[in-house]
Polyamine aminopropyltransferase
Amino acid sequence: MVIDAPVSLSAPEAPAALPVRPRTGRFLVLGAVFVCAACGLVYELELVALASYLIGDSVTQASVVLSVMVFAMGVGSLLAKRLRCRAAVGFGLVEAALALVGGTSALVLYTTFAWFGGARYALVGFSLAIGVLIGAEIPLLMTLIQRMARRGEGRDTSGDVADLFAADYVGALVGGLAFPFLLLPLFGQLTGALLTGAVNTVAGGALVLWLFRHELARRERCLLVVANVLVLALLATATALVDDFERAARRAVYGEGVRVAVQTGVQEIVVTGGPDGRLDVFLDGRLRVGGRDEHRYHEALVHPAMRGHHARVVILGGGDGLAAREVLRYPDVESLTVVELDPDLVELARDDPALSALNGGAHRDPRLRVETADAFTWLRDGGRGGRPYDVVISDLPDPGITPSTKLYSQEFFGLASRVLADGGRMAVHAGPLATRPRVYWTVDATLRAAGLRTRPYRTTGRLSGFVAGPDRDPGTAVAPRDWGFVLAARDTRPALGLAAGAPRLRSLTPAVLRAGERSAQEARVPGVVASTLVHPRYAH
């Protein structure tokens, strides 16, 4: 896609020699503009999506990609001036280069991340290269479409400019919609980018080699044929090998024990290890469940909130069933609702032998009911009109992750407090306190701004030391060594302890909770303010 690329409105000196009438030729050029614009936007979205997945913080990555690409498009438009005298062959070579660079961008980004540990420089490099090539398209196409006018007709070329940009913008719309609704779910990020490159190659090469073939010298025709064949061959080879590449890259990132790898409509789920206690679950590259230490996290999240009446419990998130396992250990729990966005994660947690064994078959307990919904929307609907809950447990991704920002907003916690019964408690996973103290205390401030009384605490002793994705300490490849939580209630400050009838726990005791509360208070960050939907304040 091109935004206001500079073009020349001066008429060419000679009309193009075309195999079709000028009107038909204009239609074919506009069709090529449409296809190339769609491909260009797919490349942009692919970079943003993959960078957010590999590096994290989608707002920053989108800003970097889009700003660098728009700048580079202006540079490409200026550089295209040197090609206008050979516009046909120039456009053909630009499209071949764009198809190769854009089509393989996701593959190379994933390669740099998997084997070299980072992808930032590759991201900026591809943003620049793709932007320059996209920026060169419209000036060259404008030159070609003007050459279709007969000499001396005195046509107003402003109509050509309007048609060209209309085709460009409509193509961008189609590409922008095709990426999330067609390419990503059907083909995935890597294959989707490679197929887009193939379409780009065919559209650009066919237009020049057929429609403008009479303007090309024999050497230029041979050059374009060879370039396009090579690009198609490389893209086809990469497509044929992409499954093997993905398996090798996953092994490089997650180790040799990858057992399940699936791209759902919501996220990528990777399961490593097995029932020997070393099972790990990664969601979009982030370690969500570490089999060696998950009990520390889930015991600290669930059991302090169960002190008091707990007949009705709701878990926001937690499709893996591990928080549900802890809740269902209380025989006096009458009903448990799990609000999970990804039904495939629930299915995996129920049917995968290792994960089902780890969660104690929680999804087969008749007291558990799953609501497939976004937690924010579900709360806004008033919990689908049900009775208030004695306990609300927020088992959601870290607040520092951009897609989770609304789930840690003042509005979200305000909605959650509305479904709490009188005397009910809410437990919130608030991210690691040791490495992201400002994020943690922003959660606490946001809960208080929503009218809740809070009790911050943490638990340490994290054993899972490797994190593959962006949810890791800056500059390292190890997980944070603690988990931070906040216990909240609507009317009075909640007591931090365990229920009188609490089951026997592996790591959590009243003494551990008291130490965790003292440790959290010692790390307090003063002056933080609440995060809202219109003013999110979470940052790593």
